[in-house]
Amino acid sequence: MSQGSNFVDYVKICCRSGKGGAGSAHLHRDILTSMGGPDGGDGGRGGHIILKGSTQIWTLLHLKYRKHIIAEDGLAGGSSHKFGKQGKDEILEVPLGTIAKDAETGEVLFEITKDGETQILTAAGRGGLGNAHFKNSVQQTPRFAQPGEPGQEVWNILELKVLADVGLVGFPNAGKSTLLSVVSAAKPEIADYPFTTIVPNLGIVSYRNNKSFVMADIPGIIEGASKGKGLGYRFLRHIERNSVLLFMVPADTNRSIKEEYQILKQELETYNPELMQKPHVLAITKSDMLDEELTAEMKLDLPNIPSIFISSVAEKNLLELKDMLWKAIEG
């Protein structure tokens, strides 16, 4: 997943579905029949606007500049019970984890979570019935038919929440991007200044026996992020779709490891208390600078969750970290 403007996780679009075609009010006439019965066909349904999940797409960038999505109208029915042509559906491919909302009410309509999954975002108008449907013993030659139903025009919000097995949580420069670059093929930007990661990055982590899991590097949180400080809560939504949260605290933190973990935990809890129900794992990064005595001393003051001292640069305890994460993922 690339950095900068190529990553778009929120779009607002106007969707106009197709209107249904009118039914036909035709009466059968030919060289042998001067007063035939009704034979008007039905109008065609208008085109739906449909969302379709795709594993080949990681962002909503392709919809950023398509503010108006318009589907085709259905055509009118014809004589001899001919049905009108159905309007072409407008199918929008979206990444997995895309949530569709009503822009006016904020109501969540549905979420796309599987490759190939389709959901109707804006339903089309139905085609009208032809006059052949209204023939009865009292009215044998109805000269009317139904008009087609109008389509809908609504504003919708598409919001992407990254789907990953493990989400990396930590303050800027905690070593999240470095870990992701070492354990996967992802190439996030790495530098010695805050907020080098400004969009989520995904990487596939290889594990034992040809297994793998997806890890997401979420842009760095700072104290007060849930209230809009730093990069704010914009990217915290992506953590909601991670199965396991890996908290990363550098060994050279100015606070105690437990204190820094509690601050990170509090920011997530303020944003969404349900995040506290997910499995938490703690990795103390940059531990290659610690000797055994200092490591043993720091272990005495760790929070009561699965914890491990690692070094991405020295590749220290990375396999053990994968074991710990896999156990948490499997539950």
Can you describe this structure?
The protein has 331 residues and is an alpha/beta fold. Helix content is 15%, strand content 24%. The chain is built from 5 helices and 14 strands. It has a 6-stranded mixed β-sheet, with helices on both faces. Strand 13, helix 4 and strand 14 form a beta-alpha-beta unit. The protein is rod-shaped and about 105 Å long. The two termini are 28 Å apart. The N terminus is likely disordered.
Proportion in β-strands:
15-25%
What is the radius of gyration?
Answer: 29 Å
What distance lies between the first and last C-alpha atoms, to the nearest angstrom?
28 Å
Tell me the overall shape: rod-shaped
Helix content: 10-25%
What characterizes the major β-sheet? 6 strands, mixed
Arrangement of strands in the largest sheet:
10-11-9-12-13-14
Which structural traits does this protein have?
331 residues; alpha/beta; 5-stranded mixed sheet; 15% helix; rod-shaped; disordered N terminus
Quick summary of this structure?
This protein is of the alpha/beta class and 331 residues long. The protein has helices at 176-183, 236-239, 257-271, 292-299, 318-330, and strands at residues 10-16, 49-54, 68-70, 90-95, 98-102, 108-112, 118-122, 153-160, 164-169, 201-206, 212-217, 242-250, 280-285, 307-309.
Write the layout of secondary structure elements.
Elements: E1 10-16, E2 49-54, E3 68-70, E4 90-95, E5 98-102, E6 108-112, E7 118-122, E8 153-160, E9 164-169, H1 176-183, E10 201-206, E11 212-217, H2 236-239, E12 242-250, H3 257-271, E13 280-285, H4 292-299, E14 307-309, H5 318-330
Parallel strand pairs: 1-3, 2-4, 9-11, 9-12, 12-13, 13-14
Antiparallel strand pairs: 1-8, 2-7, 5-6, 5-8, 10-11
